[in-house]
Amino acid sequence: MPTKSYPNPPSPKLLEKIGATNLTLADAIAEIVANSFDAASEQGNCIVEIDIKSDEIRVVDNGVGMIESVLVEATKLGIDMSGVITKHAGNKGKFGLGMKTACASMGRWWAIYTRPQGANIEYRVVFDLSEWEKKIDSADAWTINVEDLQPDFSGPLGNRSYGTAIVVKKLRSKDPAKGAVLKKLGESFKPHLEQGDCIIVNGDKAIPHTYRFVPGSLVPINILCGPKNELLINGWVAVDAQTHNDGQYGFNIYRKRQLVQTWNQDWFKGHLMTSRIIGEVHMDFIDATFFKLGLQHSDVWQMASARMKEFMKPIVRASRDLSREGNVHSPARRKDIIDTMRGELKLNPTDLPSQIPINAIIDEEPITDSVSADKPIKLIVEAEELILQNGTRISISRLERSMGEDGPPFDYLDDDNDPVGLQTILNSDHPLFLRAKDPRHIELLATADSILRYLIDRCGLESRRAVEIRNSWLLKALSGAKGTPK
After folding, report:
1. Where does CATH 3.30.565.10 sit in the chain?
2. pLDDT at res. 416
3. Beta-bridge mates of residue 386
């Protein structure tokens, strides 16, 4: 039977549809900035200037620019540019979707201006989605018009000899704010900023997070993994001087010097007592998702995660120990905990990462936990005691702490004393408590949650048995009775 072939181009309306993705403004601009770093010239540091207005967004770089044939390919959807230009090992782009999706998600009109290095010419391409959606479905519908211009020194590229500018109008957001963009870019391109590259948003330079570590806790990471130990995980991890109720702890993971996942907690169990763990790792061998906002959990990722989980055990113990009452504020106890951690990791006192993170404070100033510093706390000690079948006694108390309305409604701390001190932390700012008609019931439910999590996380009980004990305690607490769960 004969076979017929038909052209199968996508509908021009596809550009409008990809613009409806859930990329935030910060994520979209980060996609474009990643391309700027990929196109960086070898003749100096890369500078990316971003201007965010209510009716227009500009991203302008001093990269090598694009010749006409490269510009044409760069505007196509799904083109692997490695077949068009020579890519260096650190290139971030892979799927050929980032720039187009980012522009379409920001606005319904955008233009690309580019001056290639070594040529006295400027090219421009304009995309207007209101015109594209009128086109009839056909291969010709995807035709673009490239304008050859004399360099316009009053235009978006100014007096640069070479570079690329992307201008977006007809914005989807009516009130684009620069704060989240500045924060995102400081996190996403921290390795570039450390080496002297620069990102400027509305006149302000992007900077990474400021960390304050417990003295001596900064640990280098240089781990080989993979079938032949050929894949390198490198970076650092440290114990923060404070706990985090904002979720901003764990690892920032970089691929090709771009942040692809923020505050990953896959290598330890996230909890208030482990929320001091802060780190950065570079894993160039891991594939990111289309928009570089996550990782593809492949077999290689699983192998790397297994190595990291084992490596992290002494750091997790140190974070838990420092989070117990008073330990982080005592220089002697703090030193003992950190020395034990470094001993388990077989580190010398002088072993530090090859590059100490910028904006990291690791001095010997008195440490206070910002979660509770200058905030009212109220300790509620209950007369209740939970006794497990194996004889373990658990003393139950609660602590009211101001942690902000965006913080968790409750969490818990525990210690290794006899009886074990299980303390439920209640966030007095959370709407759950502010709107509760009967705060006593909320306190009991929060404590019951702490008991359940403690029995599973720390005692290793199966969830069914832990639920039985939790329910038994809750019934007796509600009735005011005491007893031993069987």
Report:
1. 14-205
2. 72
3. 394
Q: Considering the chain, what percentage of its residues have pLDDT values greater than 90?
A: 33
Residues near 408 by Cβ (< 8 Å), separated by ≥ 6? 245, 272, 427, 430
Classify domain 211-361 at the CATH topology level. Answer: Ribosomal Protein S5; domain 2 (3.30.230)
Q: b/e string for 94-124 if b means 16 or more Cβ within 10 A?
A: bbbbbbbbbbbbbbbbbbbbbbbbeeeebbb
Mean pLDDT of residues grouped by 10 in the chain (486 residues)?
Answer: 74 74 84 90 91 95 93 78 51 58 91 94 93 80 87 94 96 84 88 91 88 88 90 93 82 86 89 90 78 64 93 95 83 92 87 61 49 44 70 83 77 80 84 80 88 85 86 80 46
Integer CA distances (angstroms), 220 to 129, 236, 273, 359, in order: 49, 4, 22, 17
What span, in angstroms and rounded, lies between the C-alpha atoms of 334 and 216? Answer: 10
Joined together, the tokens standing for residue 13 give: 């309306």
pTM recorded for the entire structure: 0.66
Give the CATH number of domain 14-205; options: 3.30.565.10, 3.90.550.10, 3.30.43.10, 3.10.20.90. Answer: 3.30.565.10
Q: How far is residue 406's CA from residue 404's CA, in Å, rounded to a whole number? A: 5
Q: Are 320 and 273 in contact (CB under 8 A)?
A: yes
Give the separation between CA 128 and CA 125, rounded to whole angstroms. 10
Q: Cβ of 228: how many Cβ atoms within 10 Å?
A: 7
Token pair belonging to 125: 């391409």
Q: How far apart are the first and last CA of the chain?
A: 75
Boundaries of CATH 3.30.230 in the chain? 211-361
